[in-house]
Design brief:
By secondary structure, the protein is an all-alpha fold. It has 13 helices and two strands, in the order H-E-H-H-H-H-H-H-H-E-H-H-H-H-H. The chain folds into two domains: 209 residues, Cytochrome Bc1 Complex, Chain C (Up-down Bundle); 108 residues, no CATH class. The protein has a two-stranded antiparallel sheet with strand order 1-2. Belongs to the cytochrome b family.
């Protein structure tokens, strides 16, 4: 027993107190802030489950009941719905901050798995209030899977638990939505373990001990984030949500303008700009994966050219940064186009940006092969 206690204390000491970290700015706090958002989502989610009813006839009214009748129900519901947005904000800034880092491939892949799991959790959570956007969003996205050749229809029916989005769909999405955050928590532990194994990215930096430099820095960032969070929840709680989701889901009325939550807009922009359903699905997932793997590609070039003169490496780094900036710019444009009307010139512009995005990717690939 004593041995176990000593062992666990030494692990805590090695990874949370004495752990050597480079001296970096506040932008590096978004990783731990994302972890904090996960904790907030789990705590508020468990409180919501106590009053939520996962049934198509009751889900919408149970959320209204939480908002109007349950003591402080509005508070934890608004913390949960705005929490998803804050979570994505932190995750995007965290990805952006690490775009140019030469981190290990496995670390990037665990980041990709985390991001996909967070996306799935948020998508399923958005279905639960069973408003118009919940229902039609679920219908559009699950129907995309039906377009996969051969197995598509089976996958779609498995997701629906029947032949269309209905009560079994809501039930299974509720179940997955409850379970996924705990899988995300396990993936976070894996992600952090890989980060602590991979110290190569900090080689040239000056080190300080984790406690108290990182601890105080992240605590300060945490209070700043809580101020933004409180502003949203207390002064503008519905700013980021769509008014149509306050209308109960109806199979016979389609919303005038179907849009996902802001954090999915760039991918929705890609999807909408592709005329073919299956092609759209592939390009949408391609864009998500590309966000992570493009850097792995650059890393490989960096590693392979270790012997080349420093000046060449510098120009590689610059190329890599320019490509990162281009990718960020493309995603930002797609973000605005994804939220705009389905009309000229937005649709054409979105097609052009989607094409550019993928052309750039292949251009890099070809350049890499030429260099080999
Ligand atoms: C990764 C963590 C999570 C994310 C990103 C997330 C996201 C969301 C989103 C976007 C909604 C829709 C909010 C709305 O517009 O009303 C939602 C609803 C809900 N979530 Fe989560 N959630 C997470 C974790 C959890 C957990 C762990 C639970 C339960 C233990 C939970 C339970 C619920 C319930 C019951 C609802 C329906 C009530 C409502 O709409 O407010 N969530 N979630």
């Amino acid at each position: 027993m004593r041995f176990i206690r000593m062992k666990s204390l030494s692990v805590i000491n090695a990874h949370l107190i004495d752990y050597p970290t480079p001296v970096v700015g506040y932008m590096s706090s978004f990783g731990s802030l994302s972890g904090l958002c996960l904790v907030i989502q789990i705590v508020t989610g468990i409180l919501l489950v106590a009053h939520y009813t996962p049934h198509v006839t009751l889900a919408f009214t149970s959320v209204e009941h939480i908002m109007r009748d349950v003591n402080d129900g509005w508070l934890f519901r608004y913390y949960h719905s705005n929490g998803a947005s804050i979570f994505f904000l932190c995750v995007y800034l965290h990805i952006n901050q690490n775009f140019s880092s030469d981190a290990d491939d496995l670390l990037w892949l665990s980041g990709l798995a985390l991001y996909l799991a967070i996306m799935a959790a948020a998508f399923m959570g958005y279905i639960l209030p069973w408003g118009q956007m919940s229902f039609w969003g679920a219908t559009v996205i699950t129907n995309l899977f039906a377009a996969i050749p051969m197995v598509g229809q089976d996958i779609a029916q498995w997701l629906w638990g029947g032949f269309s989005v209905d009560n079994p769909t809501l039930n299974r999405f509720f179940s997955f939505h409850y379970m996924l955050p705990f899988i995300i928590a396990a993936l976070v532990i894996l992600h952090l373990s890989l980060l602590h194994l991979d110290e190569s990215s900090n080689e040239d930096d000056e080190y300080v001990e984790f406690y108290y430099y990182y601890f105080i820095k992240d605590l300060f960032a945490f209070f700043l984030l809580m101020i933004i969070f409180a502003y949203l929840v207390f002064f503008n709680p519905n700013y980021l949500s769509h008014p149509d989701n306050y209308i109960m889901a109806s199979i016979s009325v389609t919303p005038a303008h179907l849009v996902p939550e802001w954090y999915f807009l760039p991918f929705y922009g890609v999807l909408r700009s592709t005329p073919d359903k299956f092609g759209g699905l592939l390009l949408m997932f391609g864009t998500i994966v590309d966000l992570f793997l493009i850097d792995t590609l650059f890393d490989e070039t960096g590693e392979e050219e270790e012997d080349v003169e420093a000046i060449d490496l510098d120009s590689d780094d610059m190329d890599s940064e320019i490509e990162d900036d281009e990718e960020t710019a493309n995603l930002l444009i797609l973000f605005f186009l994804g939220g705009s009307d389905i009309d000229e010139p937005y649709t054409d512009l979105a097609t052009i940006i989607t094409l550019l995005q993928f052309l750039e990717y292949f251009e890099i690939d070809i350049e890499d092969e030429d260099e080999d």
